[in-house]
Amino acid sequence: MTRLTTRIGNLTLKNPVICGAGEQTMTAEAIRAALHSGAGAVVAKSTNESQAAKAQLDKTDYVLLDSHWRRLPWNFAPPADAHLFGRSGLVQRDFDQWLEELAGLDREARMLDSYVVPSLILSDLEQCAEFARRIEQAGLRVLELNIGAPHGEEAAKGAIVLERGAARIETIVRRIREATRLPLWIKLTGQSEDVVGLAQAARRGGADSVVMMGRFMGFLPDLDTGLPLLGTSAAIGGAWALPLTARWLMLTRKAMADDYPLIATNGARNGLDVARFLLAGACATEMTSAVFTGGYEVLSRAVEELDAYVASRDSSVEALLGSAADRVESYQQQADRPGWWQGFAPKPTGSPE
């Protein structure tokens, strides 16, 4: 055990830095690179049975934008305030081949005290349950089910499912829980007015953890062409999302009222952001866009930065978990305290000095 060791239910990770699913985990070479960066786990790019979802990968397009919505070069050195705007699809692999490859990679991950995590995106529930059963049979040790993919309402009907209903989420998770005994992580959308309620529903269905939260869908006109940037709506991510994700983590931790494990995603760009999510209640953080745009060194630097932060507090990940979330106050609790602005109000026009 070290100061960075963290637990997600019955699963122990050597550190809370996880490489999330995406183009940066689409091949065996990419997954190996992420593993050798020192990440506690690597989530493989998602799959399901839908040919339409796989075909969508051929229409993938991305653009990196600065804080003024201007294009940035894709040079793997993005500024901290860069936004990733894009659309994608699912991995174009036969399921049996994909599964065999991931099982082999997870055996390699054991040697590095890490995990390779297969990710399923829901299309047909019964087929998803069958895939979950086969993933366990193949010897993999964790499963992530993504029911919060932002592209769900843009892709071909049935290709990718985006779930916002608590009752439906509980039903989905319960069915997958029946199909497998693996630790089950459920990735939720942020495009909901009640992310806490979705997390509670996933827990009732049998989820071992929830990942919150998926990116948002956006639309951006291109001033140079007068046309939609990329020609479509697209998912948007960036550092700006960190306080939104952190708030849902804090609220979910409070609502759960115990140590139910939460995994953060959407907004972390470095190890200090992982620390921010840790303080907000996340026992681990999936870094995705930052790795895709900055390279696998983002992961190794994040581990080093987080370790330096935890060491500077003479503490551990376990001790710091949720410590800021547990001290948050309401506006009413702050009502009797003097505001910073007192004494700085502007004088009325024409008032004497």
From TrEMBL:
All residue ranges annotated as the Dihydroorotate dehydrogenase catalytic domain in the record: 86-308
One GO location term (cellular component): cytoplasm
Catalytic activity annotation: 5,6-dihydrouracil + NAD(+) = uracil + NADH + H(+); 5,6-dihydrothymine + NAD(+) = thymine + NADH + H(+)
Keyword Phosphoprotein found: no
Cofactor(s) of this protein: FMN
Keyword annotations: Flavoprotein, FMN, Oxidoreductase, Pyrimidine biosynthesis
InterPro entries, sorted: Aldolase_TIM, Dihydroorotate_DH_1_2, Dihydroorotate_DH_cat
Gene Ontology MF, one: dihydroorotate dehydrogenase activity
UniProt superkingdom: Bacteria
Gene3D superfamilies named among the record's database cross-references: Aldolase class I
Class in the EC hierarchy, top level: oxidoreductase
Pfam families: DHO_dh
Its biological purpose: Involved in pyrimidine base degradation. Catalyzes physiologically the reduction of uracil to 5,6-dihydrouracil (DHU) by using NADH as a specific cosubstrate. It also catalyzes the reverse reaction and the reduction of thymine to 5,6-dihydrothymine (DHT).
Oligomer status and interactors: Heterotetramer of 2 PreA and 2 PreT subunits.
Protein name: dihydrouracil dehydrogenase (NAD(+))
Origin species: Pseudomonas putida (Arthrobacter siderocapsulatus)
